[in-house]
Amino acid sequence: MKTGPMVKPSVSLLPPSSLQRSEGTASLLCLLSAYSPQGALLSWTVDGAEVNEGVLTSTEEQKNGVYSRSSTLTLSKERWEEAEVFGCTVSHHDTTQVASFRKSRCEVH
């Protein structure tokens, strides 16, 4: 069954807001958009170690033949403060992409 061309996801990683951090938690958001066919998988890492706790990943949604998906990693304020590098790894068929955020540089890759 042919579903059209293979298009890898566009991946964005958004850090938590300072307001949210002041309230005691920190959530990072990983957004996947405009990919085809479905079948994208996400995983999170904190300082290089895979994290499963505090992860909420949406089901894949289709619109106009392309798919999107999001995943949120929620950490305690303490865990956020002690960690340095946060990553969202996306596997889509035979490609893997990593979006990462390094706190000390306040930059997203």
Automatic annotation (TrEMBL):
Judging by the UniProt lineage, the source's domain of life is Eukaryota
Q: Which Pfam families match?
A: C1-set
Enumerate the spans annotated as Ig-like domain. 9-99
Cleaved signal peptide residues: none
Write out the entry's keywords from A to Z. Answer: Disulfide bond, Immunoglobulin domain
Q: PANTHER family of this UniProt entry?
A: TAPASIN
Q: What is this protein called?
A: Ig-like domain-containing protein
